[in-house]
Design goal:
The protein has 337 residues and is of the alpha/beta class. It has helices spanning 2-13, 53-69, 106-118, 154-157, 189-200, 234-237, 253-263, 277-289, 294-298, 313-332; strands at 18-27, 37-41, 46-48, 73-78, 94-102, 125-130, 137-141, 146-149, 166-168, 171-177, 181-185, 204-209, 225-228, 244-248, 270-273, 300-301. It folds into 2 domains: 2-177, no CATH class; 181-332, NAD(P)-binding Rossmann-like Domain (Rossmann fold, 3-Layer(aba) Sandwich), CATH 3.40.50.720.
């Protein structure tokens, strides 16, 4: 989404009008859920996707019409055969799509540029759109106030501010940043591959490594933050929140353990440690002897990653990223679990 917003902002600043198709409600088995977006331009080019197939084709057609009329609209689609308004899909669900006309110019370009810059931030923010009438984007909100753009007082729409997109009446709010940061401890080959995959799947990444040669921007070009410090001092250098995912894969078992015992004293939503089942057993025994509880041990994901038969650093990174995506979906109510 960060890239879509950035490219949309650039197009608007270049004088190109757009129609932004957004799924604002979904029910049943739809290919994409609320929050999926696709921008359509007058030349027929597009950015993003609302699910492909007949649904996307229909949305492009409606977007072109919105660009001609310079008006916004809301359209309901039934994704099952033999229903009213059947569009030839067999998913079985229903979606409501807002097709918002966005006129070119600096005002809208600035709004989406700001949205792009906030996607990977830790502070919670929401993009709010008016989906009734002819209006489209409204503004960007923090938990208690309007931060950018125009719109109603935050107190009137605060009930829309959650971890999932939500519509109520005329307004639709979707989280830009949800405080979802992955703390990768260790800068080795798997970490380098993992950071790249996580960046592409919408996580903010911070890398913590005690070796200067492995704490280099060249190795982690997409990391939001790179920290080079002793593992024993991790909590002195980073503040861990309940929106953080800790992935521990340092160069040795002792360093892994040093970080793990610190993470268990935080409210991180996910704690994963790379290693074998024997390592898990030994680590658990040490933690119990040190006074950690069985409940503490149940917080640890180890061996880390989904069991997909991964062997290479890239494959292992994919398996770990898949597990983090699954955990994120569980936390935020993702529909494809």
């Amino acid at each position: 989404m960060k890239q879509l917003y950035a490219m949309l902002a650039a197009a608007l600043s270049e004088g190109k009008d757009a129609a932004l198709c957004s799924i604002i409600e979904d029910h049943g088995s739809a290919p994409r859920g609320s929050g999926a977006k696709m921008a359509v331009f007058r030349d027929g080019s597009t950015l993003g996707t609302v699910g492909g197939g007949a649904l996307e084709y229909a949305c492009i057609r409606l977007a072109k019409d919105a660009l001609i009329k310079e008006r916004s609209a809301v359209e309901a689609f039934h994704l099952a055969p033999n229903e009213a308004a059947d569009i030839g899909m067999v998913c079985g669900g229903n979606v409501l799509v807002h097709i918002g006309f966005i006129g070119a110019g600096n005002e809208h370009a600035a709004l989406f540029g700001k949205a792009s810059s906030l996607v990977e931030e830790q502070d919670e923010t929401w993009l709010v759109t008016k989906v009734e009438g002819e209006a489209a984007p409204v503004g960007i909100y923090g938990r208690d106030a309007l931060l950018f753009g125009t719109g109603p007082d935050a107190a009137h729409i605060m009930h829309l501010f959650g971890s999932r997109p939500k519509r109520d009446g005329a307004y639709y709010a979707e989280p830009l940043s949800r405080g979802e940061r992955v703390l990768i401890f260790g800068g080795g080959h798997v970490s380098q591959q993992l950071a790249a995959v996580l960046h592409r799947t919408g996580f903010s990444v911070a890398v913590y490594e005690d070796r200067a040669d492995f704490a280099q921007r060249a190795l982690f070009p997409h990391a939001k933050e790179i920290i080079c410090a002793a593992y024993k001092d991790a909590l002195a250098h980073i503040g861990v929140t309940e929106g953080d995912y800790a992935v521990i894969m340092t160069r040795g078992h002792q360093d892994d353990y040093t970080v793990l015992r610190q993470m268990l004293r935080t409210n991180a939503c996910y704690i994963g440690v790379i290693g074998s089942r024997r390592k898990v057993a030994v680590t658990n025994e040490k933690l119990l002897q040190e006074g950690f509880s069985e409940a503490d041990l149940r917080r640890i994901h180890s061996p880390i990653g989904l069991p997909i038969g991964a062997e290479t650093p890239a494959e292992i990174a994919v398996s770990i990223a898949a597990e983090l995506i699954l955990e994120r979906a569980k936390r935020t109510g993702g529909k494809h679990l």
